[in-house]
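INTERNAL AUDIT FORM
Audit reference: QA-55
Scope: verify that the stored structure record matches its stored sequence.
Auditor: D.O.
Record contents follow.
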Amino acid sequence: MLLPGHPAVFLGRRAECALFDRWQDAVRSGRGGALVVLGEPGIGKSALLDHMASTAVGFQVVRAAGVEAEAELPFGVLHQVCAPLLATLEHLPAPQQDALAAAFGLRTGTAPDRFLLGLAVLGLLSEAAARTPLICVIDDAQWLDSGSAQALTFVAHRVGAEPLGMVFATRRAGGGLRGLQEVELTGLGPGDARALLHSALHVPLDERIVERIAAEAQGNPLALLELPWTITAAGFAGGFGPTDTAALPGRIEDSFRSRALGLPPATRMLLLVAAAESTGESALLWRATARLGIGASASAAAEAAGLLSIGTQVVFRHPLVRSAVYRAASPSQRRAAHRALADVTGPSDPDRRAWHRAQAAAGFDEEAATELEGSAHRALARGGIAAAAAFLERSVALTADPAAMAERALRAARAKQQAGAYDSALHLLALAERGPANELRAANSELLRGQIALAHSFGGGATSVLLRAARRFESIDVSCARNVYLQALAAAMLAGRLGDECAIAEVARCARRVPAAAVPRASDLLLDGLTLLIAEGRDAAVPVLRRAVSAFTTEELAPEEALYWLWLAGHGAGLLWDDQAWRLLATRLLRSCEERGALSVLPMAAATRAGLHLLSGELLQAASLAGTAADVTAMTGAGPVPYAEVGLAVFRGRVDEAAAAIRTATRDATLRGEGMALTYLQWAGAVLHNGAGRYDLALESARQAGADSSVQRIRNWALAELIEAAVRTAHQDLADEALRELCRTTRLCSSHWAAGVEAHCRALLAVGADAEDLYRTALDQCERTSLRAEVARVHLLYGEWLRRERRHVEARGQLRQAHEMFVRFGMDGFADRTRSELSAAGEPTPKRRSPFDEQLTPQERRVATLAGEGATNAEIASQLFISASTVDYHLRKVFRKLKVSSRTQLARLLQDSHPVSGDMDRP
């Protein structure tokens, strides 16, 4: 705490000041980071930030603060932080420029995704810090609006290799601040407390009274400065009276309230107007008070009482003064203050004017409600979903007409759902459903309920709700009904075996009776193909599914269609064993997510694309995408089962690590009702155990996965694992039945993948020359695909067969090729199995691992992989959610560790270690 009248003397915070000095030195040298200053109201957080900012020599310091009354207004604090730095906006990638410009209303366009906006803020601050070391100071972070909080905490978790520091002061840790370095402030020590108290005394007091006040304040600096204003010596009964230290912040606020209530009425109203308007614009305050008939002289008493000061800005002594003044006022006084502020707020700030007008309303107010709707529309355009939801929710309360109220409640519920506030959304839906009967509103309400249920459970109970919504839409809009049926089908497929057993069939039956589209969209073809597969089987479905997959790969799609349906179209490609179409669709979906910043879909997109990399033996690329999926899931707090992370552990063959990941993911999938994930995990277990030669365990996992519906592509892949495990454990009947079922999925498919898988599975059950011909056919077919891991596995199986036929020289050739491929890919489990076979064939082979994996950290591998594929630092930063400076930092370390000096050399080393597929497509 700064000693009044002695700004150079800072009491009781020597350790904290020393920590700040060391932290500033680190930031100045390019090792940026974030600090969170924690403590109760009045403990000295703001004073410490003031001191830190005044000693930040050589830094540009940007300051901002949250305000309780405006925690719903979009991006207010973020604008305070970024406005001084917007000159560097043009240096950011175009999507990030657009995101910031849209958020601040500088241009119109698509609302930015909240994490794309966070990445843009990181880029902006990093660009500014590259010119002059930068510290951003955010006070009262507990009152940040949600949009600002998400963007600023996103940045705080990603600074590290640039001269950029972030400091947050808040009453409590949590939310996005969790995990950052904390500095917790406690009360001053006895000596410092007495020194500060003596500096604030306005009358001489007996030393026992001083000790009593110091004890009462518990070392809280603001209490030490404030209590002498309200406590008399007699009131302390000579220092022996009772105390109440249980609610010190409340007592400090009560002290401010008492001081405000002792002021003249005009001064109290001036204070109230200042408390109701957080911009701190003194001109606005004077206009509003003039409208209330209050002159400028009314401020003198408030300034003399030490509650606020008015210069070019209105500054309260402490945030508790603002809250004390506002809470002390009566409802009618608050409405009067807000009404005056609404009247004098200009057209350049329509949202603030609408908010004040809404707060001024005593009952229903249609004009105010309409203005709030306009504010909500503008907030949505800027990506302020939470703010839009707040505007709309308030507009509901101001609406008298039942029909209009129901419509506004539905729109508010949709905004709440998009903001992730599901409980509030359901409450508003209940209000909407009480309105006058309206079939379209009822259908939209049912749809929204289903989408909320799907967000909660990834299938499960969502299917029946979405099915009811689709039926409602049939009599209103057939095209919309077909779209909702496709959503219901997707929910049923996600739920799989953990949902209603009849759900998929029921959705298909209902969707089949809806009239076909006159000019079918890609989504119409997909719905028709999937429902035909469920209702009539593969013979009827395959031609339509082919048309659907082709439409998704060739037609221009609306952004919403791409994000909603490309993953399901990729599922259709998997059902057709069409790896080329799957690759195109997965790459297109991932790029669409990255371009739009659609991080809610990105984990699934990254996992889908990672799956192709795994089957192609591109484990470094898969690891990069697994990291991206994990990063986004951690940021959003939600996402599907970690498909990519589990698959990566399985293909690496790290048995204990993979088995633990499968167990954890299985528990989570079961709790969430995500049956599709359960089948994936069982298939993954079969691959893991087949790779390790633990065929009895592989058989059990594959049997579980193979028991799922044929509409699940992973179930079809699991049949191949089942055949291998059954043959190795002498379960001929199981192998024969699995082969018959597998052939039913491949016989109508014309892909090399389907032909190769069927041939190698037939070879496992064949004998003599037939087996050899089938292995050669399998190799020929698989080598025409990009799925190099499949090729390596066929070499292994063929080599094992040759060894058992005692053709050791030929066996060694096949096994040697398989071993070299597995080692390059990093598939250690299969490499070890192949090494054992080589040894049995008379060629002992040392155990080898890729040095590329061993020398680099996971983040360095991700950066190296993308750089080796040709991505620029800015592109890598966008994909990994870090700054370009951090990318450069990691690349310098990669070059040093791998002893390369250029990206060309890095790409060559990467290809030698882990060859990529021929098309070299980069997500």
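Auditor finding: record pair retrieved intact. Strands lie at 2-3, 6-10, 33-38, 60-65, 134-139, 164-170, 181-184, 308-310, 314-316.
Action required: none
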